[in-house]
Amino acid sequence: MEYNFEVSGIYYDNKDGTSRKDIIKKHLDIDDYTKINVTLIRHGGNKHDRNAIGVYISKSGFFRFNNLMIGFVPREDAKEISPMLKEGGEIISAEIYKVWLPSWSDKTTPYVHITINTNWTENDVEEMYKRIKDERRKKRLEKRSMSSATDKNNVIIKKVINYILNMAILIFVYFLIFK
């Protein structure tokens, strides 16, 4: 499958404090993007989105640089791509196809468009969604059956306690009357 998207989160800084906007302005201010390598890395522990996928750029050669983060795959696309990667799918190619760098203001955020090709099909995605839905349904049913069994045990315990209390009251009344 092919995905085309605008990199999101460019206006934020990276964890090390580097500006993603500055990285883009410095390294993507060229007309030939074919020499720039694009890598997508899952960020499964991301507190904002469990499907988060970081977009990194690198370049080999004399003016080389390695794995500089420029943003994320948009949430809508990551929702599909991340589980497929987790299940063993592969990205065949990832490349920049369009960059816009604002020239009139340093405060304006640039944008970067990426295209990726994968080794999965639409049917693979549908099957993955169906599997996830079935797994979630199964977990809900297990949770319900566990709570149902707990409810049944609670009912039995309540009946036993009521029986014991009633017997205690009868014994108390018996001793009051016949003593």
Automatic annotation (TrEMBL):
It comes from the Eukaryota. This is HIRAN domain-containing protein. Keywords: Hydrolase, Membrane, Metal-binding, Transmembrane, Transmembrane helix. The chain crosses the membrane at residues 160-178. Residues 10-120 form the HIRAN domain. Gene3D superfamilies: 3.30.70.2330. GO terms for molecular function: hydrolase activity, acting on acid anhydrides, in phosphorus-containing anhydrides; nucleic acid binding; zinc ion binding. SMART domains: HIRAN. The keyword Transmembrane helix applies.
